[in-house]
Amino acid sequence: MFMNPLSGKRSGADGDDFSRWGEVVAIVDPDRTRVDAFNSGLAHPIAAYDPDDFDRMLEEVQPDVVAVTGPDASHAAYITAALRRDVEVLSEKPMTSDTVQTNEVLQAEASSNASVRVMHNARYRSPHVAIKRLILEGRVGRITNVELVHNLDTYHGASYFYRWNRRRANSGGLSVTEACHRFDLLNWWVNDTPEEVFAYGALNYYGPHGAQRPRNEAGQALSPAEERAACPYNRRWSAPGHDVVSSRLQAHEGGHELSHNRDYPPDRPIYIYDEDIDIEDTYSAVIRYRGGASVSYSMNASSPWEGYTLAINGTEGRIETRSYTSPNRCAFPAERQTITYIPMFGQRQVHEIGGGSNQGGHGDSDLRLRQEIFMGPQPENAGLGLPADAMAGSYAVAVGEAVWRSATSGRPIKIEDLISATR
């Protein structure tokens, strides 16, 4: 989508309605059927362009801001085209799917009068802001190491293998397309440049040799219909009138259920055990930062519960927290998230988290992010360094790429070998 800001008095937005602050003036999408269906529900249809007409759109519409929201591997081409015309860019995360594209974006930005902002919305969640405040207050002192265990449940984790994300050429793999959320948070909390990564990774749950793939008594593959009927992921999440596979390919926001038949033709069904899956679903990694801090990170994309456990250790103490990001799908009662601070030589302190509602999506992060996008810097966020620029977006991608490159090569990967520009 491509937006022109509207002038107006800078007072608070009405809930999640930012229409007074910006206007969608054009859509670029390869699926004209889907665009037409979207426009059919609007009083004033939005101008639509094919991807090959992106430059013509920039010339005719002259937007002030371009919002890039397509599949990850498509981002760089639109970002660099906008920068060449000095048009500001808002990019969905990850900024790119690999560091070749990342370097192209950094070079284009260096030659442009415009800039890129990456929508790393995880920074804006109330618990993550609270952790950043504790760090900035000096509660842990100098950060020495961080422990982060990240789980995707059997609904969310499996969803990546029903879609385009399952091919590295499209997404960079889960260490980029999904884990960039966590890597950006780590870079932001540690406030340092990642330097080297060593990792192990594997495809354990999905793909043709997935651990849960149903087979017949002789150990042979079932027919597609039999396999889906017996698949524990499908059985867990599908219900009468609700097929979990097709539901992952629909957009429900705003009451729209738009067709994805162009990208996912009904006569070419895909499933989580297909042969063409070429990414990992499990990682264990160590990240070293320039200033000496280190991170141990693990990800499991088929877990009974979704969320993370985190500990930040420093010279003055430790921060601990556990987050259940989808408590409604948890197989047991999920606890409310709190943040525990333990001074090195003092009593434990438990901090309750304010906010945290799901208004706007992803906890309260999407709403808070949109407030800053449309209304400008919010006073309560001053000094936190919340906006993620192109360099921050680059390092999040670089760590993710280093993880899968290390996992597939068996050697440590230096970030400076992936990103040509440095801080």
Could you give a quick summary of the protein structure above?
This protein is an alpha+beta fold and 423 residues long. It has helices at residues 32-39, 54-61, 75-84, 99-110, 126-136, 156-159, 168-171, 174-177, 180-190, 224-230, 232-237, 244-247, 365-375, 390-409, and strands at residues 2-5, 22-28, 47-49, 65-68, 88-92, 116-119, 143-153, 194-202, 282-289, 294-303, 307-314, 317-324, 338-343, 349-352, 388-389, 413-414.
Give a quick set of tags describing it.
disordered N terminus; alpha+beta; 2 domains; Dihydrodipicolinate Reductase, domain 2; Rossmann fold; nine-stranded mixed β-sheet
**Main β-sheet, spatial strand arrangement:** 14-13-12-11-7-10-9-8-16
- Overall body shape: globular
Query: What's the number of domains?
Result: 2
- Please state the CA-atom Rg, rounded to the nearest Å: 22 Å
Order of helices and strands: EEHEHEHEHEHEHHHHEHHHEEEEEEHEHE
